[in-house]
Structures are given as structure tokens and as C-alpha cells.
Design goal:
Blueprint lengths: L29 H6 L22 H15 L27 E6 L5 H11 L7 E5 H11 L1 H9 L3 E5 L6 H16 L3 E6 L14 H11 L3 E5 L18 H10 L3 E5 H8 L7 H4 L5 E7 L5 H16 L4 E5 L8 H4 L4 H17 L7
Parallel strand pairs: 1-4, 1-5, 2-3, 3-4, 6-7, 7-8
Helix pairs in contact: 2-3, 4-5, 5-6, 6-7, 11-13
Length: 363
């Protein structure tokens, strides 16, 4: 379910010095956040037909069937009625069953491929469908305000939420309320995560209120289990060892559109840029080159790095690095804590991007 990536072309001498992520402080208007709620470039061309189920995992074949049927059922009028209803029109009856599907499975089994395929297969104009990560959804609420987000997304036929993660009670209440209003407006929902809906709160500093909100969310979805192993490591070599500072620097100067940054300085810079802008931070980049990769010092910094890793992975931007390998970024305490799923996902994705970057270094 992966897509091959060709490393950016090198020239003997780049036209200019490498770019720097640390020199960028992008401003992202709210309308761009809405317009960009589509499958990321990595998933532009994926379809149900391009998903290759593992013959040893029948749940993958079943997922394609269920989602294909779900997409077909979203054709025709908006669930709340064709066009806008008059003020005196009778309110439509609430849906009798779950208005969504929830793809549960481990890392790299193709959940995002299937979610993007659902978006593409749903018979509606692109502006009637929205696709974004859980973090991007909460960022949208922060940019537009809650009521405007409800009005904007309430006109959609489908909302796809990738990497559904509830990290604190505040986000839980916010998203639970938002999804409830969108379901009432007739919006169909689809989401991916690595945990079943009723289990999302486990290991997340849960309280009674937190767990109660989780149960309310789970009622909106039909859980769909997808078993399998991480395709990013299936039949592939181990992650490449880090290169030297000199090799990374030379590659950055020889690669058009590459950035070059010192890793500790980049982590400091991420603290000054809102995570909703990390996508814009990578605009027009062909490769990211990092020197002196070190363990991430604290959890706040680690969570920001996770968001950047997701944006780089979405955009298929190779990452060339010196210092420690990416599987040593996070401490044992972090990897055993409440955010472990995010950290393992970041390691998996950065490792894949490091493989893509091997061609940037000349023999």
C-alpha cells in the first residue's frame, strides 16, 4: 500500500544555499485550512482498486467491501435534505444507525490509503468532502471558531478524520460536541485510529468525564477492524544508519529545493510556530536535511515533532539526517507513556522518509 518515492535530482552545485526551516514563519489564513482539507499528496492517486489486501488477512478484503458500499450509499442528496431547507420545513428524522465507520488497526496496514480511497470514491464534489487529521480538525476549530466550523463542515457530505487521537479531556469534549452536531446535520463520518473507539481513553490520564465522552463518540461509528503488519517494514531493509554532518551538508547544497537545519535549533523553532502552520512550513521543499539529531528533551517538544513528521510524510519529503537514528529520538518513558502510539507512528514515518533520502548521498 506504499508509494515509491524518487529522490530529488542533484546538481553539482546548487543554484543557491539550502533553504532553512528555522528561517520560515508562515502565516496561514483560515480559508487555506479549509481548502486544504483533502487527502495529502501521498494519497492523491490511491483508490480501492490500488489497495492490495494481504491474502493472509481477510479483514483487509472485508474493509474494502464495506467501505465501497459505504461510499456508494453516500450518493444522492445530503442526508439532511436536498438543498437548504425552508425555515418551516420539518426536521428530518435522525439516522437509525451509525453515520460513520471507524477503521481500527495497527501502524502501516493501509488505513489512510483506505480512508483516502473512501474520500475519492464518494460521489460528491470535492468541496462537499473534507479530509484531515484529528490535529488539523482541532486547529480548524481554533482558526474558525466552533460555530463557524459547524456551519462550514455541516454542508459537507463526508468528513474523514485520520489518526483519531484524544490526548486531553478538552479536545475530547470539543470533538465529541462537534461530531454530534455534524451527525445531526447529516454529515457522514469516517475515521482511522490505532485503538477501538471505546478504548481510546486508556493510558491517557483518563477521568470519569473523559471516558463518558469517549463512549458518546463511539456510538457514531461502526468499528471496522483491519489486521496486518506494518507495510513500511514488510520486506524492506532496516532503517539506514545516519550519515555524517559533512555528507548531509554536501547533499543539501547539491539538491535543489532542500533545506538544511541543525536538529536542536529546529526543535526550538517549532515551539515558535503553531502546529497548524507546519504544513506551510514545508511548502515547496524537495528534501529535509538535518544535522546533529539528538534525543527529544521533553514531551511538549516530542508532540510538536510528531506533527512535523506527519506533514513531511503526507508530502513525501525525504529526510536525510546525521546524529542518532530515528528510533532513538524518544525516551523509554515516552515510548511507554500515554502518547506512545504517536511516537511509534513518528518513528515509523521518519524511518520511511530516511529510506527515501538515501539516494541524496553520493557514493
Amino acid at each position: 500500500m506504499s508509494s515509491s518515492t524518487t529522490a530529488p535530482a542533484q546538481s553539482p552545485i546548487a543554484d543557491a544555499s539550502p533553504l532553512s526551516l528555522c528561517a520560515r514563519e508562515p502565516l496561514v489564513p483560515a480559508d487555506r485550512l479549509v481548502a486544504e482539507m483533502v487527502p495529502p499528496p501521498r494519497f492523491d492517486s490511491v483508490r480501492f482498486e490500488t489497495y492490495i489486501p494481504d491474502p493472509d488477512q481477510p479483514s483487509q478484503t472485508e474493509a474494502v467491501r464495506v467501505l465501497s458500499d459505504f461510499a456508494a450509499g453516500l450518493g444522492g442528496a445530503h442526508a439532511s435534505g436536498a438543498g437548504k431547507r425552508r425555515w418551516f420545513a420539518k426536521k428530518p428524522a435522525a439516522p437509525t444507525g451509525p453515520r460513520g465507520v471507524y477503521l481500527d488497526g495497527g501502524y502501516g496496514v493501509g488505513k489512510t490509503h483506505l480512508l483516502a480511497s473512501l474520500w475519492h470514491a464518494t460521489p460528491a464534489a470535492p468541496e462537499q468532502k473534507a479530509f484531515g487529521t484529528f490535529v488539523e480538525l482541532t486547529n480548524l476549530v481554533g482558526a474558525l471558531g466552533f460555530q463557524q466550523t459547524v456551519r462550514t463542515l455541516g454542508e459537507h457530505r463526508l468528513l474523514c478524520i485520520d489518526e483519531f487521537e484524544l490526548d486531553d479531556p478538552g479536545d475530547t469534549v470539543l470533538v465529541s460536541t462537534l461530531l454530534g452536531k455534524l451527525v445531526d446535520a447529516g454529515v457522514a463520518l469516517a475515521a482511522t485510529s490505532n485503538t477501538l473507539p471505546g478504548k481510546l481513553g486508556e493510558g491517557r490520564f483518563a477521568s470519569a468525564d473523559f471516558l463518558r465522552e469517549i463512549q458518546g463518540l463511539s456510538a457514531h461509528f461502526r468499528p471496522l477492524r483491519i489486521d496486518g503488519e506494518d507495510y513500511r517494514h514488510r520486506g524492506l531493509p532496516e532503517a539506514p544508519a545516519p550519515f555524517s554532518d559533512e555528507q548531509v551538508t554536501k547533499a543539501a547544497y547539491a539538491t535543489q529545493g532542500a533545506s538544511l537545519d541543525d536538529f536542536p535549533h529546529l526543535l526550538d523553532h517549532l515551539a515558535r510556530v503553531h502546529p497548524s502552520r507546519y504544513g506551510a512550513l514545508t511548502d515547496d521543499l524537495k528534501a529535509v536535511c538535518l544535522t546533529d539529531v539528538q534525543p527529544v528533551p521533553d514531551q511538549s517538544t516530542a508532540l510538536r515533532l510528531v506533527v512535523l513528521a506527519d506533514r513531511l510524510y503526507d508530502r513525501e519529503i525525504p529526510v536525510l539526517a546525521s546524529g542518532l537514528p530515528f528510533d532513538q529520538l524518544f525516551s523509554e518513558e515516552m515510548l511507554n507513556g500515554g502518547y506512545r502510539k504517536k511516537y511509534f507512528r513518528a518513528i515509523s514515518r521518519l524511518t520511511a522518509l530516511a529510506r527515501d533520502a538515501k539516494g541524496l548521498v553520493r557514493a
